[in-house]
Amino acid sequence: MLQLYQMAGTLYIVATPIGNLSDISFRALEILKSVDLILAEDTRQTGKLLMYYDIDIPTLSYHQHSSDSKKAEILVQLLSGKNIALVTDAGTPGVSDPGNELIDYLLSKEPNTIIIPIPGPSSITTALSVSGFKAGEFTFLGYAPKKGRTKFLEEIKNARRTVVFFESPYRIVKLVDKLINQLSENKQIFIGQELTKLHERALRGNLKEVKRELEKEVKELGRIKGEIVVVI
Questions:
Q1: CA distance 204 to 231
Q2: Within this chain, domains 2-118 and 123-231 share the same CATH topology
Q3: Where are the domains of the chain?
Q4: 123-231: CATH superfamily
Q5: How many angstroms separate the CA atoms of 29 and 53, rounded?
Q6: Residue of 8, 149, 165, 217 with fewest CB within 10 Å of its CB?
């Protein structure tokens, strides 16, 4: 068994850009160029990054619907000595991302699996850094649920610190409406759209003001566009 672990490969958890492809570390690039296999949430999306940096490493799809047999296949490759990098479509794997399920599976089967984080971009800290709100402590709520929003809104209302979460551009206006009813129209909010991308936009103000800006965007463009990060 000792010999088996000495031969085993390493799983690298590699953070990749949330938009701007230049937002990647030298270390992340070195790892992506040196591993035997890259696990990607969407191989087509990751392919754009790899092509941009001229990285010719095989990719394998791993996402939230991947089966235990896929996880077992990954474990076998690690135990055979393959070094593997796990990336998500954008940001840091394992945070509101199925990467945490893979890590849990691997460690439950082989506790000595070597897993190394390669830190980098995160839309959570990116939004907090420009929100202007206190961020010494914060609560991250993941993706706002499609259903059962009463409990979610209660969590925000009762929070004792800054709250961060993701929301769909198709539901953000309705959510702001509900927040106005739950918190008051004067509650301060920050909404980051398409952070680090070409059409990056930051909305700051009270709920009433931000709702007006969002409705203006819907009127002009037909809908709200881009990835959304909310800070309250």
A1: 9
A2: no
A3: 2-118, 123-231
A4: Tetrapyrrole methylase, C-terminal domain (3.30.950.10)
A5: 8
A6: 149
Distance CA 156, CA 179 (A): 9
**What does the pLDDT read at residue 6?**
56
**Whole-angstrom Cα distance, residue 117 to residue 15?**
8
The single residue listed with the structure tokens 């129209």 is: 185
Q: Collapsing DSSP states into helix, strand and coil, what is residue 55? A: coil
- Confidence check: pLDDT of 2 > 80: no
Q: What angle do CA 58, 61, 66 make, to 5 degrees?
A: 150
Taking only the tens place, the pLDDT of each residue in 112-144 is 999 999 999 999 999 999 999 999 999 999 999
CA distances from 65 to 70, 97, 112, 190 (A): 10, 11, 26, 32
Which residues have a Cβ under 8 Å from the Cβ of 120 and sit 6 or more positions away?
14, 15, 16, 17, 23, 24, 25, 28, 92
Torsion, CA 114, CA 119, CA 121, CA 127, rounded to 10? 110
Overall pTM > 0.85: yes
Rounded distance, CA 213 to CA 232, Å? Answer: 17
* Phi and psi angles of residue 100, each rounded to the nearest 5 degrees, phi first: -65, -30
Q: What is the pLDDT of residues 150-190, one digit of tens each?
A: 999 999 999 999 999 999 999 999 999 999 999 999 999 99
Span 21-76, pLDDT tens digits: 999 999 999 999 999 999 999 999 999 999 999 999 999 999 988 899 999 999 99
